[in-house]
């Protein structure tokens, strides 16, 4: 079965001009879309929010949220992607940088969860439960003391 991006490319010629703008943007910047609202995407492509929703339905998604979830699941998760920051450009708009960094972080979290071995994870949790003390090491985390207080980590130590 073709990916969502491939489906968009295959159907591009069958879409209205406004929907084509949405499709072209998504195929060029798929990593940005999962963090966007329909309003954000409509602004980036100079179309109405209704056009964004129509585009999603034309591609086979029930709505924009479903479309974004499907797209996010299909974005590549490779080890190279986790340390490749080449998608970040000096002239990127602040919100675009935010979306790109968010996507990279999501990929790192997903990759970590996929690489965990259940037995090793459970062993680590057992050791943490049995520990008399857990020491958190943090660098440049100014709110850590407040977080520890709010979460009742009164017996924990902070090493700076």
Automatic annotation (TrEMBL):
For this UniProt entry, the molecular function terms from Gene Ontology, in alphabetical order, are: carbohydrate derivative binding; DNA binding; DNA-binding transcription factor activity
Domain HTH rpiR-type stretches: 2-78
Any one Pfam family match given in the protein's UniProt record, by short name: HTH_6
Q: Which InterPro entries match?
A: Homeodomain-like_sf (IPR009057), HTH_RpiR (IPR000281), RpiR-like (IPR047640), WH-like_DNA-bd_sf (IPR036388)
PROSITE patterns xrefs? HTH_RPIR
Xref: PANTHER family: GLUCOKINASE, HTH-TYPE TRANSCRIPTIONAL REGULATOR HEXR-RELATED
Q: What is this protein called?
A: Transcriptional regulator, RpiR family
Q: Which organism is it from?
A: Sporolactobacillus inulinus
């Amino acid at each position: 079965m073709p990916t969502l991006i491939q489906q968009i490319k295959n159907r591009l010629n069958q879409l209205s001009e406004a929907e084509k703008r949405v499709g072209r943007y998504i195929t060029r910047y798929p990593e940005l879309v999962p963090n966007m609202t329909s309003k954000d995407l409509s602004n980036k492509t100079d179309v109405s929010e209704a056009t964004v929703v129509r585009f999603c339905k034309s591609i086979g998604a029930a709505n924009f949220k479903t479309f974004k979830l499907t797209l996010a699941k299909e974005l590549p998760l490779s080890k190279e992607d986790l340390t490749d920051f080449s998608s970040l450009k000096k002239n990127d708009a602040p919100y675009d940088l935010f979306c790109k960094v968010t996507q990279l972080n999501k990929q790192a979290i997903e990759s970590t969860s996929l690489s965990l071995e259940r037995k090793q994870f459970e062993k680590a949790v057992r050791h943490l439960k049995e520990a008399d003390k857990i020491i958190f090491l943090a660098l440049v985390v100014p709110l850590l003391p407040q977080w520890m207080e709010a979460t009742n980590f009164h017996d924990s130590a902070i090493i700076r």
